[in-house]
Amino acid sequence: MGIAEFLLMSLLVVLAVAAVFMRDLLAATVVFMVYSLLMAIVFTQLKAPDVALTEAAVGAGVTTLLFVIAIAKTDRREEDV
User: Fold this and answer.
1) Residue 13 forms part of a structural domain
2) How far apart are CA 51 and CA 41, in angstroms?
3) Domain count of the chain?
4) Is 9 part of a structural domain of the chain?
5) Crossing angle for the helix pair 63-72 and 25-45, nearest 10 degrees?
6) What is the CA radius of gyration of the chain?
7) Which of 15, 22, 65, 80 has the lowest tally of Cβ within 10 angstroms?
8) Measured between alpha carbons, how far is 56 from 36 in angstroms, rounded to an integer?
9) Per-residue confidence (pLDDT) for residue 80, from 0 to 100
10) Tell me, what's the pLDDT at 52?
11) Which DSSP letter does residue 77 get?
12) Which of 41, 37, 39, 32 has the alpha carbon at shortest distance from 64?
C-alpha cells in the first residue's frame, strides 16, 4: 500500500466522520459529495471504471441534488447551542 492510497483512505475516514457529526445539513451534504467523488477515484484505482462512473453519477450527482432539494424545501432553524 503506497502513501497515496494511505492518504486517500485516511481522508475517506475523516470525511465520513465529519459528515456524521456536522450540524449543518448543507455542509454535511457537500462533505458527502466530496466523499462520493473520492470513492469514485478509489474505484478507478481498483480498476473498476464502471463502478467508479456509477458512484460519481449517482453518489455525487443525483444523491447530492436530491439532498439539496430536500433541504431547500424544509425550514431551516438555527438553534443556539
Assistant:
1) yes
2) 10
3) 1
4) yes
5) 180
6) 15
7) 80
8) 7
9) 58
10) 94
11) -
12) 32
Model confidence over 2-53: pLDDT tens digits?
898 899 999 999 999 999 999 999 999 999 999 999 999 999 999 999 999 9
Which residue range forms the structural domain that includes residue 46? 3-72
Locate 70 and state its grid cell: 430536500
pLDDT band at 79 (very low <50, low <70, confident <90, very high): low
Q: How far apart are CA 50 and CA 40, in angstroms?
A: 10
The single-letter code of the amino acid at 12 is L
CA atoms within 13 A on the CB side of 77: 3
What cell was used for 62?
443525483
Q: Give the pLDDT of residue 31.
A: 95
Alpha helices in the chain (DSSP H): 3-21, 25-45, 49-54, 63-72
DSSP state of 23: S
